Amino acid sequence: MSATLVVQSHREDLPFAWLRDCLDSVAAWADSNGFDYRFIGDEIFDLVEAGLLAKIGEQTVIATDLGRLRLVQQGLESGYDCVIWCDADFLIFRPDEFILPTHAFAFGREIWVQNDDDGRMRAYPKLHNAFMMFRRGNACLEFYLDTAERLVRLNQGGMPPQFIGPKLLTALHNIARFPLMDSAGMLSPLVMRDLLAGGGDALELLRQKSAVVPAGVNLSSSLTVAEGFSQEAMEKLIRLLQDDGI
C-alpha cells in the first residue's frame, strides 16, 4: 500500500465524454507518483448520514461535498498518511509541475474571472474544494466536516449548491488563512473562451492574479452546457491545455 491515496467519484454514466480525459489525467498523475488511486460511483452517498441526505434532498452537490469529506476521513483511518480528493472535472495537464505542498492540509486556489454588475472585468480570489489534500493528524478535516454537517442540520431555508463547499471554505479562509495549492486552479467560462480563442483580457487577468501558473484546473462541468460549451469545444480546450498550458 502506498502512503498516499487519490480518490475521485462520479455517477458511472458520465454525462460528458470529455470527463473521461479529466479522470484519466488524475489517475495517470497518481500512478506516475506511485500513489494508490480509487474511483467510486454513487456509493459516495452511502457515506452521508441518512438524516442529512433526506434534508439535502435533490441537492446532490451538497451531498457529494459531505461524502468526499467522509471518503477522505475513511482513507486516513484505513492507514494512509495522505489522502487527496479531485473532482471528476479536474484536469491535471502539467503533471510534472503538479507537486503536493508540505502543509498538513491544503485546498485549491480559485481565481474566478467575470464581469461585475457594471460590466467591468474582475478577478475574485477564493479557494475551492475541487482539489483537497489532508495528511494524517491534520487539524482541519474533522473541524470542516463537523461544521459542514452542523450547518446542514441547522439550516431552515434553501441551500445553494456551494453552501458547504467554496462558500463555507472562503468564509473560513478569510479568517483562518488556510494553506492553498496554487497550482490547483479553476477556470471560469470567460477564461475558457479566451483559451479557445487564443487569448484575451480574461486570460491575461487570470495570469496576472495567479501566484503560480496552474498545472491543474477544475473545468466547471456544471456550467459548460449553460455557457454553450460543446463536447468538441471541451475536447479542444483539454488539448490546448495539455499542449500549451495556460
Describe the fold and architecture:
This protein is an alpha/beta fold. The chain has one domain (4-244): Spore Coat Polysaccharide Biosynthesis Protein SpsA, Chain A. The chain has 9 helices and 9 strands. It has helices spanning 19-32, 50-56, 60-77, 141-154, 166-176, 189-197, 201-209, 221-224, 231-244, and strands spanning 4-9, 36-40, 82-86, 90-92, 105-115, 121-135, 180-181, 184-186, 216-218. The strands form 2 sheets. Strands 2-1-3-6-5-7 form a 6-stranded mixed β-sheet, with helices on both faces. It has a 3-stranded mixed β-sheet with strand order 4-9-8. Helix 3 runs antiparallel to helix 4 (141-154) and helix 6 packs across helix 7 (201-209). The model has no long low-confidence stretch (mean pLDDT 95).
Can you tag this structure with a few keywords?
single chain, 246 residues, alpha/beta, Spore Coat Polysaccharide Biosynthesis Protein SpsA, Chain A, 6-stranded mixed sheet, 3-stranded mixed sheet, 9 helices, 9 strands
Low-confidence stretches: none
As for the CATH topology, it is: Spore Coat Polysaccharide Biosynthesis Protein SpsA, Chain A
Radius of gyration: 17 Å
Classify the secondary structure makeup into a structural class: alpha/beta
Count of individual helical segments: 9
CATH architecture field: Alpha-Beta Complex
Any idea what the shape is? globular
What is this structure, in a nutshell?
Helix content is 41%, strand content 22%.
Present the secondary structure layout.
Elements: E1 4-9, H1 19-32, E2 36-40, H2 50-56, H3 60-77, E3 82-86, E4 90-92, E5 105-115, E6 121-135, H4 141-154, H5 166-176, E7 180-181, E8 184-186, H6 189-197, H7 201-209, E9 216-218, H8 221-224, H9 231-244
Parallel strand pairs: 1-2, 1-3, 5-7, 8-9
Antiparallel strand pairs: 3-6, 4-9, 5-6
Helix pairs in contact: 3-4, 6-7
